[in-house]
Amino acid sequence: MPPPAPSSPPSLDSLLAAAERANTQRSYAQALRHFEQEWQGFLPATEGQVAQYLADHAHSLSIATLRQRLAALAHWHGEQGFADPTKGLLVKKVLRGIRATRPIQVQQAQPLALAQLQQADAWLAHQQAAAQTEGDKVQALRHARDRAMLLLGFWRGFRSDEITRLAIEHLQLTPGQALVCYLPQSKGDRLNLGRSFDCPALPRLCPVAATHAWLQLSGLQAGPLFPAIDQWGHVASRPMAAASIAPWLQKLLHAAGIEGAAGFSSHSLRRGFANWARDAGWDLRELMAYVGWKDMKSALRYLDAGGSGLQARFAQALGSDAVADTNHPKKAPSPS
Q1: 16 falls in which pLDDT band (50, 70, 90)?
Q2: In a domain, 318, yes or no
Q3: What is the domain range of residue 28?
Q4: Which residue has the higher pLDDT, 313 or 50?
Q5: d(C-alpha 223, C-alpha 157), whole Å
Q6: Are 145 and 284 contained in the same domain?
Q7: Is 37 inside any structural domain?
Q8: Which of 66, 214, 263, 274 is most buried, judged by most C-beta within 10 A?
Q9: Domain with 30 in it: what CATH number?
Q10: How many CB atoms lie within 10 A of CB 50?
Q11: Percent of the chain having pLDDT more than 90?
Q12: In this structure, are 160 and 281 located in the same domain?
């Protein structure tokens, strides 16, 4: 549910600070420091300076990082009322040249398959039950939190920052029925209108039941839904860091006996759900609305091509004989 309205009007500074997400502010500040202090550039910058900056870091920084640096420079010039040098033709040509000389394939996170989700959930459930039997409250708490975070993160296709910004006071949980998560801010919500994410109860691997069990065991009634827990079992008032979700998932999957755990990242939950939904027959527009993608290009980046079923799909179109011919090619006739 949305947060209550503040009792007093916010200050001008607080409104200006709230206009940008903290992560964006930090990344922009870091980019500007790199341009001014490390590269010894000058602000406001010229188109030629920006082009030379790109050329000097063409092979030391990734394409994504270079684009982020350009965004920071564009933002600074816009805020200060200067013309944006990053939109110049020279800058665009240099960036195209860098892409042409560095044809690097974009690395995608490995999607978490449903069978792997089930294996990790079963391991967590077993470990939590064992910890409670042995009176190990610390591990019982941690496993309960991890199970809720794993299942909710998968079935809602949450990003790592969305997982860590979930707050208990913004939840509507009805055991056995549904869970509604409200986020005041999320990626793509430029007007900060907030958005509610519905999650139904499921017959198995249920995120509603797991979240309810975690709240019952922890006794938490407010604050972050997934807080940090130290080695003594102290539940922190701060949430887990978004950057910790990837190593957390890798460690969990490795402990659950899933091979190649190092190949997973925080996007694996989101990609795993997207691929499951596609295989389950979801319409792409329906999937986009559920996850929160604004354009089809963003959605397609998360979907695998489904290579394992390609042969069967081609065979269905060509006729059943195509499969037999592919698997058992006919021998050439012997010369008479």
Answers
A1: low
A2: no
A3: 12-101
A4: 50
A5: 22
A6: yes
A7: yes
A8: 274
A9: 1.10.150.130
A10: 26
A11: 57
A12: yes
Q: Can you give the pLDDT at residue 99?
A: 86
Residues 94, 218: one domain?
no
Instruction: Provide the domain count of the chain.
Output: 2
**Three-state secondary structure string covering the chain:** CCCCCCCCCCCHHHHHHHCCCHHHHHHHHHHHHHHHHHCCCCCCCCHHHHHHHHHHCCCCCCHHHHHHHHHHHHHHHHHHCCCCHHHCHHHHHHHHHHHHHCCCCCCCCCCCCHHHHHHHHHHHHHHHHHHHHCCCHHHHHHHHHHHHHHHHHHHCCCCHHHHHCCEHHHEEEECCCEEEEEECCCCCCCCCCCEEEEEECCCCCCHHHHHHHHHHHHCCCCCECCEEECCCCCEEEEECCHHHHHHHHHHHHHHCCCCCHHHCCCHHHHHHHHHHHHHCCCCHHHHHHHHCCCCHHHHHHHCCCCHHHHHHHHHHHHCCHHHHHHHCCCCCCCCC
* pLDDT for residue 97 is more than 50: yes
Which of 66, 101, 136 represents a domain boundary (last residue)? 101
Is the domain of 271 the same as that of 143?
A: yes
- The mean pLDDT value for 54-69 works out to 90
**pLDDT grade for 25, boundaries at 50, 70 and 90:** confident
CATH number at residue 123: 1.10.443.10
Q: What is the pLDDT of residues 283-331, one digit of tens each?
A: 888 888 888 777 776 667 666 655 444 445 445 555 544 434 434 433 4
67-76, 105-114, 170-179: lowest mean pLDDT where? 105-114
pLDDT: which is higher, 164 or 102: 164
Residue where the block lists tokens 């309205």: 5
Closest CA to 158 of 254, 226, 223: 226
